[in-house]
Amino acid sequence: MPEDPVAAALAVLDRNRRGDWTCPSAGIYPHQWLWDSGFVAIGLARHDPARAAGELTSLLRGQWSNGMVPHMVFADDVHDQGSRRLWGSRRDPRSPRGVATSCITQPPVLAIAARRVADHLAADARAAFLADVVPKLLAHHAWLYRDRDPRGTGLVTLIHPWECGLDTSPPWMAALRRLRPSVGLRVALALRLTRLVRALRRDTRYLPARERASNDDGLRMLDLAYRARRHGWALDRLPPDRSLQVQDVSFNALLAMANRDLTTLAADAGIAVDPALRHRFAATPDALETLWNDEHGTYCARDAVTGATLGPPTIAAFTMLAAGAHDERLRRLVARLRTDAWWPAHPVPSIAADAAEFDPERYWSGPTWVNTNWLVIEGLHRRGELALADELRRRTVDLVAEHGSAEYFSAITGTPLGADAFSWTAALVLDLATPRPA
Ligand code: 9WN
After folding, report:
1. Catalytic pick from 167, 216, 268, 391?
2. pLDDT in tens, 298-333
3. Is the dihedral of CA 352, 357, 358, 363 positive or negative?
4. Which of 264, 343, 384, 400 is 20 to 30 Å from the Cα of 418, by its Cα?
């Protein structure tokens, strides 16, 4: 008999609690991650709004003076020298004093989470929370547009797969493999220094290798991070032929959603949004439509240097249901969602089940994830597809009730994969356990 899903989810979040914040999963992910904390706050908003608010404010202790919110804030008491040394954030004068962080970002879900948290706080606490976080979130979004969209296209450019959140999804890995390797990487690949990579990797110490990125891809991602470090993590300093520069679908769709929520929160708090920033916000929805690809019949990421489409299509396209405005395209997306390839026994896989790259157990190359299902459900609600939204909601809650709060699941068999007791799985089940009023 499966446990009560709400009680089980709260137990996972208590187990992963580290004071004010929650780690994604003890052991493999001991630090604080940006979008993980956003999802934790969304899930906790109704059950414990004060803790949910603390989850967001604690993440923002890692914010840099230029507004960048890093994708990781390191736990003080966890030895993880390999990872800390890679980033070396403390050598960068823009990093916060006394807090070690990564030097790249992750999907900007914080304003989306903050709006939900604010809705559940009592008036005084809400005013104090908004006075604290709204200026920081405005600085965060201003950084995204200033540093990552210097040409004013309306779309932010990412410089590393770790920034997109769906890290090892096939379009990103294909682009990474096409990149001319550095001398160091060529030597490492030729000598097959897998032992070295395994020593640097934390994930395969805990999990079967077949569920994770290959060692070669792991090496390529590390090499790319070292290259970006040599250029101060700055998009405008990266050599175009030796870097990845990607206009990612889900990152920019989440940015459009977050811009809407941040605008509402700023108005509530009586904080003015700089007109130039408003102008940037306004450009993003139309710019997102330029990611539509007729050949694939869906939205795809784009190489920001060459303009090439990065296929195959992934779950990222469906996040447009919550961000897009092109009725005909979004109708086509909903129809596509109901095809066997995207709606197998346990919808919705990270890539189509009939794609050549589909691998049912490997990370972002096939399994279904609760956070992406949550985003699809959000989009279906926005489109008025209430029956489909509720079906996906029920199936997601049932999957977790039956198999536990795994990091991800086989979309074919439901087998739990990756880390267990994973925070965003638990948190979003908390949110999904209660059906939405129609
Ligand atoms: C690198 C923490 C993070 C998630 C990402 C997921 C994975 C890290 C990793 O874990 O990324 O940031 O070690 O592979 O891809 O979405 O935020 O849960």
Report:
1. 167
2. 999 999 999 999 999 999 999 999 999 999 999 999
3. negative
4. 343
